[in-house]
Amino acid sequence: MSATPIANCAECPHRRDLLTQGRCTPGDVCVRAMSGRQIERFFRVNPSLADTYAGDAFWERRAIAARYLSQRQLLSLIHDPDEVVRRVLAYRLPVEALDPLIGDPDREVRVMVADRLPPERLERLAADPDYLVRQYVARRLPVGRLFRMIRDPDRQVRCTVAGRLPLESLGLLRNDPDAEVRITVAGRIRCEEANGLLRDPDWRVRLRLAERLPIGQLGTLLEDADPDVRAAAQARAAAGEQEVRE
Questions:
Q1: Whose CA is closest to 79, among 109, 119, 117, 37?
Q2: What residues does the LRV FeS4 cluster domain cover (predicted)?
Q3: Which domains does the chain have, with CATH numbers?
């Protein structure tokens, strides 16, 4: 087990006040130690001192201090060179101050921004180079603005879009190159628009249709080449006939 880092109190500006008052403890509650845990405990006990360390040379000290900084001081760190510091800002800044972080080079910063911005301000991140950021956008963008993401290069993003598009627009994804997207479409598309999927090359798409189409629309699914699709369609047809007899 590694030894607990202990800073030299003789070089600490708090040795004559906080140390004597019991508000810091060498090896446990200490802002000068090269230990994130000790620094965190220090600011938890002395949150009012966080502003003093906003410009500290040690990135971890700045990042932990940022969790306790006043809003005024937070803005001074908006261009901090360390992404961990900027991630704290993306979490803590008021939403009206997040715009400078929309183009941040760190993905996690942009993900947090995409998760916090009001939906009506998300469109600037819809073309982000990282799929995870765009995924957050696709989950939160107003439905009426999702059309620009129908051709997103990432399958997961398009699946999210397929799960949220208005029903009258789902046909735009009916011929998506990825089966996962088409399965989502098959589960939501209006029945009268589903015929184009009855001969989909992926059996899972056809199975989804066999599970939900009206009996009269099952058509070719009753004789489908895949046994699972065929069985599902025939079982539903048989159940429908039984209901009619009863």
A1: 109
A2: 8-51
A3: 11-102 (1.25.10.10)
